[in-house]
Amino acid sequence: MQETLALPDYLDLSPDLVKRFRTIESRETILRIEHLRKDFVGRNGDGAGMPPVLGDISFEVKRREFICVIGASGCGKSTMLRILGGLEPRTGGDVRMNGHSVSGPGADRGMVFQEYTLFPWLTVKKNVMFGPRMSGHGKDASEAEALQWLDMVGLSERADAYPHQLSGGMKQRVAIARALANYPAILLMDEPFGALDAQTRCQMQRHLLQIWKNVDVTVLFVTHDLDEAILLADRIVVLGARPGRILEIIKVPVDRPRHQGQLLSPHFLAIKKRLEQLIHPDDSEALKDLPLMRMTQVGDEAED
Amino acid sequence: MIQRRVTDSLPTDIDQTSAPALPARAVLSPVTAPPRLRPPSPAFQVRKPISSRANLWLTQGAFLLPLLLWCAVSYLPFLWHPKVNILDPGSVDYFQKGMQVDRAEFRDENRKQIAAGGAPATGVRENPVYLPAPHLVAKALYTAFKTPPLRDGEPWLHESLGHSIRIITLGFLLSALFGVPLGILCGTFALVSRLSEPFVDFIRYMPAPVFGALSVAILGIDDAPKVAIIFVGTFFQMVLVLANTTRSLPAALLEAAQTLGAKRRQLLLNVVVPGVLPLLYRDMRILLGWAWTYLIVAELIGASSGISFFIYQQAKYRNYDNVYAAIIIIGLIGLGTDIALKWLGRFFFPWEKADA
Question: Of B31, B60, B138, B233, whose Cβ has the fewest other Cβ atoms within 10 Å?
């Protein structure tokens, strides 16, 4: 891969996109992260003196925006999402949802996790009813709500199945429906399609874009898959490791509506190249060769 | 040579800086196993399920094998049979008809008699009285319920059994009444756990029977101290076992529930409890078996009663066939209860996979 295509500048936005970003920026801020910091200090003080997991993270998310967070492993992207969700305390800075400082989990921030977290003892329908029930809605109202969301993710026929009877992709669709049934202001997604096979993954990405288009929800999506990030996001927040910090926030120069066919378009490749540079700089650990010795016969090389 | 093996003599003109090769003998040559044409039999495959037909056969075999062994030892006179039942005492003055003596003794006495010119005794080899033959036990199983007690006022077998079952049920329910909530709370709240578990752990190591004398002194000699022994024997174990099981609930489920707006009380009642219920149910099935163990102790303190007293009594009269019958009845009750509970569990917890 020595030869290089002539790629456009990844900062180059089409007039349509410029207009779109202007619209987004005119919307109100849903989530404001200010100088967020996270140190891991154990009970015995171990971990003290280590660089923080998250150093100094600041950015804003506008209503109805789709943000992807990417970064090499260990950059604290999942930790950041868990702090936003209120599942982990921060050690510095502030997180403001609609102006209110976050101090614990709440129904205004729906979460979808990589591992399957459907309640195995509840049917699909009752899983989706869980949120409304917890916030005190009646059984009938919650059920109507749940059926509507199941319809949205195309699973109304499986309403009475138990989670263990569903495929991985279906489980995550139910998890999305369950989170949306609470009408969260923001949907926090932590590599939700990470455990799915490539084909299901593509399908899920398409589903998610459709849902996002039709529901008034903002999405903050953590992934390590660059294609996924570019395909989904308006803006991509690139994190670096040790300490976890923002390397760059990039406006994705790929036109909407997005589809798999854009994967090889010049703008797609341009931003992908930039992301690769950010995540795997030339001196990065990932590019080093293994200290291997040859264990094959001479003249039997697999590649030259 | 298709074998993947390091070549013995490496040409020297090859650039070895990127991948220096070690001398060949430093590397183990790959093991070459002869190809297997037939797939390996599933019988001894690590963690592989076996067919349901084989399953059925093996389950029956689990009972048939010990039974066959018992039959063999009982009905094949050349296997074991260490005693001799005297048919005719001959000239041995202390032998009597129907008396059981050791084979060695029988042989010695006869040798002496022959040497002295007396008539030797005759007898048949048999097993000791404490190992009755299967058919005798089977008969005892059948007649045990129809045989009136030896003395007036003593309970019939079915009354003894009923009494035992009552004690177990009462003791275990009492234990569950306090143990299940406490176990769940311990597994959920660190505060409850720290406050109760160390003490529970302390008592847990005391054998329940040591409380026998104490519970009789406090509760009298009737059923109350027996129920108390079962309670002590199961409650403390139950709290620790259930607490640990409750802790095994994946934290991810609790987190998911929290992000869906569940507050503390709702987490406990709508996530923790339903989430661990099938596992707690399984634990309780195991603990119920322990309750039977403590029953045997419990029934012999204070006024002896129940199935243990029946066994004790029959052993005293040397009616070992009845003893075995009673033991088998306990086993059957245990097995029956467990199978019934397992079946009920599938009905209660339809989301659990069949084998869980």
Answer: B31
